[in-house]
Design a protein that fits this description.
The complex is a heterodimer of chains A (about 140) and B (about 550). Chain A has seven helices and two strands, in the order H-H-H-H-E-E-H-H-H. Chain A is mainly α and about 140 residues long. In chain A, helix 3 packs antiparallel against helix 5. Classes of the chains: A mainly alpha (about 140), B mainly alpha (about 550). At the A-B interface, helix 2, helix 3, helix 4, strand 2 and helix 5 of A face helix 3, helix 6, helix 9, helix 10 and helix 11 of B. Chain A: It holds the Pfam family DUF485.
Chain lengths: ~140, ~550
């Protein structure tokens, strides 16, 4: 059962860490980016789908040669997806990673490991002597 | 190619089209099944080599389910693209654009935008919190047993629906590409595909599966890129001219605007809306996508994976736009529709039109590789879910060593593989296209609400999770069971009896909001409070990745 608390609770008080200002700051920074962004791209996608379903005549408005508004808006969905992706990468590298790694290093120094690590880690760290994959299955 | 062999080719009767668009009936058949088979065998050989190489180090559960968490972000991103871009997205979307024009393009946008949900809200937090499966994360701070069982049930349901659709599709693809028309012949090929998949996953585990997916993604994207440049070059890289030709050739002005497939009446429009929502919210709840986030050492690599996957998948869907309209501009509609496989044959026919037998062979082999890689990914996900969640954690209560868990996973692979083969043979000729939509709807309603709630809402409880997951899963299946897919319409299983109480063919429009609502009501009415310490731990782990990176060290 994944109860890391049994092994690690003694070393780390998660609720105390959770209430620290630097963790709250990390959480706020993360949510202040991903929540509004998610609302924006979902609304923009939904608007596009509704337009395609219920106002195809708007999509048919010609823009350039045979390229109509529908094609332009569709390609714009691709473009915004790429832009939001790039924006998130740069935001998380600059604003999130330094904050989260500071807390992570501190907790790892205090001995926090994987959740439910106990059986797996023990098994993986000692190289299985003879029968690997194939042998186990027979 | 001897006459005896070619005469069995269903495409043999098709006229070859000249580049000018005039029909010239040639005596040559479209492609040669032997070339297709030959190129496919080369793919099998190469991937088997990688699978065998990968199998040398498959001792632990982390090796078997998560490829030892040894893949780089770029490798994993490519594998995600290989996992995600099914034959339905390649043959299906190109064909849909060629025949229904803009409506085919609409699918691809949903499939792509969906990745932002995974990138922003799910991938990194999930990687930080769990070990192998979605259930690891969902049961983290709630009551283990019931939540794990529910998560495993919906994982297995999604995998099975998706698997069945892929296997049945394999049969249709065979008739299209290899000229095997008979029921027995198609069944044999489904069995071969299934057996190959069992071998890959049984021996190679996640590492082997990942390599198959990487190779397949490279082939699929390179193949479609070559065709795209080729088509564009024929039009002097003027996309507008290509669109104009597509309209001229088909004589359908409407090809460039939405509505040819879904614009019929109010219900079809609502159906499209439902599908669009299920696609965009379902992707980040697809278990075979989620499990891929555990194959990288850190959350940062999980982020890199999704970014790379978005670029590849986005580029690929842009190619399908050109290929779809290219097929409309360079082929006759009647030829596409009368070919075995119907609109799915647009991409292979276009390949033949452009590059003759060799390019058709390559594209055919790529299509097979696509099915193989996707079914392998689904099978390893199902086996991880059963062996790790149900057998290891619920039945054995976590008291199971790595050897035992890997053995259980391998046995599950064989069982799932045999079920997939039997199901695929049974589903042949049935209209199973709805199964993919159903898989997305279940993923969006049974999985995504609970994933988001447990990652972002402190007040979420076990009751909320169970209500949401079972409510989402149950309502999706029930709505399909009482929809025109099953009753009353021409394409239904029972065309004569109209028991379709739900008018749409996609349940998402109802089941997704319902699942979100049930999760909220269930949590609000809970009498048992969840452990705040576990909630704090999950909060911290998900955002910081404490301890999670150590998994890469062995």
């Amino acid at each position: 059962m994944s109860s890391p608390t049994a092994t690690h609770a003694a070393t780390v008080d998660y609720q105390e860490v959770q209430s620290r200002p630097e963790f709250q700051e990390l959480k706020r920074t993360h949510r202040s980016f991903v929540f509004p962004m998610a609302v924006v791209f979902l609304a923009w996608y939904l608007a596009y789908v509704l337009l395609a379903a219920f106002a195809p005549q708007i999509m048919a408005i010609p823009v350039l040669g045979n390229i109509n508004l529908g094609i332009v808006l569709g390609l714009a969905q691709f473009l915004t997806t790429f832009l939001i992706t790039a924006a998130y990468v740069s935001f998380s590298t600059k604003a999130l990673d330094p904050k989260s790694s500071a807390i992570r290093h501190e907790l790892e120094a205090a001995g926090v490991g994987l959740p439910d690590e106990t059986p797996t880690a023990a098994d993986t760290s000692e190289p299985t002597p003879t029968t690997p994959a194939g042998g186990a299955s027979r | 190619m001897t006459a005896a062999l070619t005469s069995s080719t269903p495409l043999a009767a098709l006229p070859r089209l000249s580049a000018s668009g005039e029909e010239e009936v040639l005596s040559t058949e479209v492609g040669s099944p032997w070339a297709n088979i030959g190129i496919f065998l080369v793919f099998v050989g190469v991937t088997l080599f990688f699978v065998l190489r990968a199998s040398k180090n498959n001792n632990t559960a982390a090796d078997y389910y998560a490829g030892g968490r040894s893949f780089s972000g770029t490798q994993n991103g490519t594998a995600i693209a290989g996992d995600y871009l099914s034959a339905a997205s390649f043959l299906g979307i190109v064909g849909a654009i060629a025949v229904y024009g803009y409506d085919g393009f609409l699918y691809s946008i949903g499939f792509l935008v969906a990745w932002l949900v995974a990138l922003l809200l799910v991938a990194e937090l999930l990687r930080n919190t769990g070990k192998f499966t979605m259930a690891d994360v969902l049961s983290f701070r709630l009551r283990q047993q019931p939540v794990r069982i529910a998560a495993a049930a919906s994982t297995l349901a999604v995998c099975l629906f998706y698997l069945l659709a892929q296997m049945a599709g394999a049969g249709a693809l065979v008739s299209l590409l290899l000229g095997i028309d008979s029921h027995a012949g198609q069944s044999l090929i489904i069995a071969v595909v299934g057996a190959l998949m069992i071998v890959y996953v049984f021996i190679g585990g996640m590492k082997g599966t990942t390599w198959v997916q990487i190779i397949k993604a490279a082939l699929l994207i390179a193949g479609s890129a070559i065709m795209t440049v080729w088509v564009l070059a024929l039009y002097g890289f003027n996309f507008s001219d290509l669109l104009g030709d597509a309209v001229d050739r088909t004589g359908q002005e409407a090809l460039l605007e939405p509505g040819m497939q879904y614009g019929l009446d109010f219900l079809t429009k609502m159906d499209f809306l439902s599908l669009g929502i299920a696609l965009v919210l379902g992707t980040a709840g697809l278990p075979h996508v989620l499990i891929r986030f555990y194959t990288v050492p850190t959350a940062k690599d999980a982020r890199k994976s999704v970014v790379w996957a978005i670029w590849l998948i986005g580029a690929f869907y842009l190619f399908t736009l050109v290929l779809g309209y290219g097929a409309a501009a360079m082929l006759n509609q009647e030829d596409i529709l009368s070919a075995p496989g119907g609109q799915n044959s647009a991409a292979p026919l276009l390949a033949y039109e452009l590059g003759g037998t060799l390019l058709l062979g390559v594209i055919a082999a790529v299509a097979f590789a696509t099915i193989l890689a996707v079914v392998a990914g689904l099978t390893i996900t199902a086996s991880a879910s059963f062996a790790h969640d149900i057998y290891g954690q619920v039945i054995k209560k976590g008291k199971i060593d790595n050897k035992g868990e890997v053995r259980a996973a391998r046995m599950t692979v064989v069982v799932v593989g045999i079920l997939a083969i039997l199901g695929g043979i049974g589903a042949q000729g049935q209209n199973v296209a709805f199964l993919v939509a159903l898989a997305f709807a279940v993923a969006a309603s049974a999985n995504l609400p609970t994933i988001l709630y447990s990652l972002f809402w402190k007040g979420f409880t076990t009751r909320g999770a169970l209500w949401s997951m079972y409510g989402g899963l149950g309502s999706s299946i029930l709505l399909i069971a009482f929809s025109p897919v099953v009753w009353g319409a021409e394409t239904s299983f029972f065309p004569e009896v109209d028991l379709a109480l739900y008018p749409l063919t996609n349940p998402g429009l109802v089941s997704i909001p319902l699942a979100f609502l049930l999760g909220w009501i269930g949590s609000k009415t809970s009498t048992v409070l969840e452990d705040p310490a576990k909630q704090a731990e999950m909060d911290i782990r998900s955002l910081t990745g404490v301890g999670a990176e150590k998994a890469s060290e062995h």
